[in-house]
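User: what does the whole thing look like in 3D?
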Amino acid sequence: MPDTARNFVGEPLLAIHDLHAWYGESHVLHGIDITVPQGTVVTLLGRNGAGKSTTLKSIMGIVPKRQGSIRLQDHEIIELAPYAIAPHGVAFCPEDRGIYATLDVKENLELPPRIDQHGLSTEQILDLFPQLRERLHSPGSKLSGGEQQMLAIGRILRTGARLLLLDEPTEGLAPSIVEQIGDTIARLKQQGYTILLVEQNLRFAMSVADYHYLIDHGQVVASYDRQTIEQHTDTLLERLGV
Amino acid sequence: MIIFGIPIQALLGQLMLGIVNGAFYAVLSLGLAIIFGVLKIVNFAHGAFFMLGAFTAFLLAQHLDANYWVVLFLAPLLVALVGMVFEWLFLRRLYGLDPIYGLLLTFSLVLVLEGGFRVAFGSSGQPFATPEWLSGTIDLGFMILPTYRGFVIVAALLACFATWYVIERTSLGASLRAATERPELTQAFGINVPRLVTLTYGAGVGLAAFAGVLAAPIFHVNPSMGSSLVITIFAIVVIGGLGSIKGAIITGLGLGVVEGFTRVFYSEFSSTIVFLIMVLVLMLRPAGLFGREEG
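Assistant: Here's the predicted 3D structure for the full assembly of 537 residues, as structure tokens:
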């Protein structure tokens, strides 16, 4: 198995080794190995139910049972309580965006505690996503899908986390919004953020990411960099069932 | 003036007394509602914490000669502390299990607390003096209101408002609402949800204790003073909508008044009316007057 993401120079920001995860009796991840180099965008590709979202949730400690190793900046975080993981510099944007209906937009935005002073201010986030400015006091439940996604991404930029986990940020959004999200991801990368992205949309993934992992049945079955993925596009489209 | 054969003075008088009772109901059901909202546990021990508040006030006043103001704030804090220890040692082991376990555990706490206080103080009750400067009366024109009852209404409404304000208008309240809505995701943002849960339980039983201190000069301080009240409070929380802050406050006050009026027109029915309303609400709006229907 070619593991191109491991052939980079320098320290990995995130290194997952032999990660297993269970929901009750059902064994969902069967020994995932993933490396995310500092300052890169990495995607997890795969069909529905392959274990991509579970991988992100396992990093955040919100899967009931996990085993293996998750190292973030050389700290083993798999044993930590769920609330103790974010302070190590990681922030999560869930697949359903995770916007709280009982909080207004401003409260949603300012909910996650800051973990260092480099996070964006509320003002800077509103400059990045001007659509949110006029909705600041609307309840989270009244936002459109695109606005929810902007809020969900904006919210985690406030914390100062340098590793962002984004679970299908483009799912169900209009092409113009997908483009805006793509631009945002590119800009974040330029600013030195590291992003681990779950994506079903291969074209979108190829346009933003440096490395890709293909996940199937809870395991990594292939990995690609910008060059090698071009040669495998057809097989990948087939394997992803699109 | 006479309405339906009842002098208006009698009506207004019962309205006032209804508001006093409603003020107690509001503070008690508010505490129960925030506990249910966050812990998803029906705190059967709520009445026992009410009693514990009254007894703590009684003991502080008796043995430490503490001033009423000190007692009014210190007793709820001490009881909140007891509640937090109880949550931390016992209650948190039951989260995620069938709610019946929480009910059984909190019910057992009622038996232990009430039994313990009965052994120590007997069941007849201890008098608690109304503070002197609150012991007069106010002439409202239609009735003579004991000053202390007026004070109870104001203090209870202030406690309700303060609780509502913290939950709806502060960042701590936003974290609390987030933890209520999606505890798991809220933890992923780095918010210590278990600690919030402990604090919530403390705040909820602290409110019950606050009501207990307010009640001490009106009722005799006795071990079973909470158990008669708690059933009515449960009915009120169900009518208002489980976990609804606004619902608990408004329904508490409203039902106090309804009870008061019922006492004028058909007094035999006044202790049953709340449960009749509960049945009607459950039939017509199962989520309660202010509750959100579960999607």
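In plain terms: Residues 217 and 232 of chain A are 20 Å apart (CA to CA). Residues 1-6 of chain A have pLDDT under 50 and may be disordered.
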